[in-house]
Design goal:
Layout lengths: L2 H23 L7 H7 L3 E6 L2 E6 L12 E4 L14 E2 L2 H7 L2 E4 L1 E3 L5 E9 L4 E4 L5 E6 L7 E2 L4 E6 L1 H16 L2 H13 L4 H10 L6 E4 L4 E6 L6 E2 L6 E4 L3 E9 L11 E6 L2 E17 L5 E9 L10 E6 L7 E5 L4 E2 L4 E8 L2 E12 L3 E6 L6 E5 L1 H6 L3 H9 L11 E11 L4 E6 L10 E7 L13 E8 L5 E8 L4 E11 L4 E6 L10 E6 L13 E8 L5 E8 L1 H9 L1
Parallel strand pairs: 29-31
Antiparallel strand pairs: 1-2, 1-3, 4-24, 5-26, 6-21, 7-16, 7-20, 8-15, 9-11, 9-14, 10-13, 11-12, 13-15, 16-19, 17-18, 17-20, 18-19, 21-25, 22-23, 23-24, 24-25, 27-28, 27-30, 28-29, 30-31, 32-33, 32-35, 33-34, 35-36
Helix pairs in contact: 4-5
């Protein structure tokens, strides 16, 4: 027997043994294997989570650094659902977007108003001390701010030539026994601010007062002190302010939308950050008549007892104003409602990755929950986080568009604009490859990508190497497409000398020559360079530069070249 024959026999024997063992264990064609192979979903391609237009044949990273996600057969755009208003997202997309849902429930929203305020003096228990004639302080008794005083306590004594003369005349009239003149002198002293107590002392002692005493009109704390020993004082000066802090005001701000729920006499609670376990109970004392035109809030004055003086003027406090609970209604988390200005809507989670946007009529909101008056039943699942990302995801754009404008052939809306350079044009496939500038509204950096062309956009409008201004939108499948395109304005060139180089050449300070195309005279300006140069020009170097505009319309340098003088000097050398 030849070696060839022996080898063939050995291979056949090994194959037969392996097949028998596999058949014995059931490893060869196991039960259900044909069914699994038949029912396993086929991956058609991989797409970027935030840009279904970015497609690849294998896993990888999107231009924004996110993992590509698979699109299975039957789940591609246009195959999600037979219902035009229902869109379907894969579990991977839902997980990437961080979608959370909440239940719409029937509940009564509380009428409480939560706001902040600051502690202020109770003006009803605050007094200001003045004198009615000029003079000099000669006996200051209260010398420190914050001192506590009692009603009738001497605050200070002062000398006034006119008051001294009037007291002398009063004593003279009393000694003469002139009753009528004495009564007139007494009235004059009282009108000039001399206390009844000191007038009685002058009448009994028959001695003119050299200094006039000023007494505390009330008890409390000195909250303002405007005098010192020996100072000259006038009637228009506020010498002291006294306030009884056993009660204080709290001035709170209430939003205009909540102003109808506030009324005088309603209960109020105050809390301080450094005393979290303590609650002060008070009432609404007064509602100011005017709305603040800047903050659009209504000022409300609250009154609180403050026996231990824990509430000090100018402290900030968290305020809760009690109110009557509203009737039960369907409520959802406030963040679940999408407000557009023209209408309000929520995104329903239908299960199995399906979503639908539905219009609703909203009512009262307490900041955490919003009342739904129409368009939603209790028990429905609504998207409370990620609904705006769903709006920008692949097929949901078509669902929203149909909800607001049922015309199926409506042109895509421009949602972003950018400038770019055309790299390639596929007229038959209606795509264009563009290197575009950053697009902040979409969160995109500068990058190179393919765009489809919306209906009405002529591929002939693009020239390879040309600059274009693009209007970007989404088609019915949610893919980013070019909605509008026009050639950018020709670049304007200028020449100048580099004065300062910053950030590795990203920013240049240039003193440039006149630029007639822009009507610019000779001047020194800062320019951003986009894209940043590979080699920054040197300080003092004369350059020739092309000007463009950034996304905000500001002039930037888009290209740097050697000036004619510099080039000539190089040739001469």
């Amino acid at each position: 027997m030849s070696a060839r024959t022996v080898l063939v026999a050995a291979v056949a024997l090994a194959a037969g043994v392996a097949g028998g063992l596999a058949y014995e264990r059931g490893d060869l064609f196991p039960h259900g294997a044909g069914e699994t192979a038949a029912t396993e979903k086929k991956i058609l391609y991989w797409v970027a989570p935030m840009d279904p237009n970015y497609r690849r044949d294998a896993p990888g990273k999107s231009p924004m650094g996110m993992d590509l996600i698979p699109v299975y057969e039957g789940e591609e755009p246009g195959a999600e659902s037979s219902d035009a208003d229902v869109v379907q997202l894969s579990p991977a997309v839902i997980n990437t977007m961080g979608v959370r849902t909440a239940s719409a429930e029937r509940a009564a929203l509380g009428g409480a108003v939560h706001t902040v305020g600051y502690v202020a003096l109770d003006e009803d228990k605050t007094s200001h001390v003045h004198v009615r004639k000029e003079g000099w302080i000669e006996g200051l008794k209260i010398r420190s701010l914050g001192a506590e005083v009692t009603q009738g306590e001497v605050l200070f004594e002062y000398f006034s030539p006119e008051l001294a003369a009037s007291s002398f005349e009063y004593v003279r009239d009393l000694e003469r026994g002139d009753t009528w003149a004495g009564a007139g002198g007494r009235a004059k002293l009282k009108a000039l601010g001399v206390s009844e107590r000191q007038i009685e002392e002058i009448a009994k002692s028959r001695k003119a007062a050299e200094r006039i005493r000023v007494y505390a009109p009330q008890g409390g704390v000195v909250v303002q002190l405007g005098v010192g020993e020996g100072m000259y004082i006038r009637p228009d000066q506020t010498l002291m302010s006294l306030s009884d802090l056993s009660t204080v005001w709290v001035i709170a701000d209430v939003f205009e939308s909540q102003s109808d729920r506030v009324r005088p006499g309603m209960e109020a609670e105050a809390r301080l950050a450094h005393l979290p376990d303590r609650v002060w109970h008070g009432t609404v004392d007064y509602i100011y008549p005017e709305l603040d035109p800047t903050t659009r809030t209504l000022r409300v004055r609250l009154r609180f007892d403050n026996a231990d003086l824990a509430l000090r003027p100018n402290m900030f406090a968290s305020i809760t104003l009690a109110g009557t609970a509203r009737a039960e209604a369907v409520v959802v988390p406030a963040e679940a409602v999408i407000r557009t200005g023209r209408s309000d809507r929520v995104v329903l989670a239908l299960g199995d990755g399906r979503f639908r946007a539905v219009p609703v009529t909203v009512g009262f909101s307490d900041g955490e929950r919003t009342e739904i008056l129409d368009g939603l039943d209790d028990g429905a699942q609504v998207v409370s986080s990620g609904q705006f990302l769903i709006d920008s995801e692949a097929s949901l754009k078509a669902g929203f568009a149909r909800m607001e404008d049922p015309a199926p052939d409506a042109a895509p809306e421009v949602i972003a604009e950018t400038e770019g350079t055309v790299n390639a044009v596929d007229a038959q496939g209606r795509t264009v490859n563009v290197t575009h500038a950053p697009i902040p509204v979409l969160g995109w950096p500068a990058m190179t990508m393919d765009f489809g062309l919306a209906e009405g956009v002529d591929p002939a409008a693009f020239t390879v190497g040309g600059k274009v201004s693009l209007g970007i939108g989404k088609d019915a499948a949610g893919a980013f497409v070019v909605v509008t395109a026009q050639a950018s304005a020709p670049e304007v060139w200028g020449e100048g000398v580099v004065d300062v180089v910053k950030d590795g050449g990203r920013v240049l300070t240039v003193t440039h020559d006149p630029i007639p195309a822009l009507g610019w005279p000779t001047m020194t300006m800062d320019f951003t360079v986009e894209p940043p140069p590979a080699a920054a020009p040197a300080v003092g170097e004369r350059i020739r530069f092309a000007l463009g505009k950034d996304a905000a319309g500001m002039p930037i340098i888009v290209e740097i070249a050697a000036s004619a003088d510099t080039a000539a000097a190089g040739v001469a050398q």
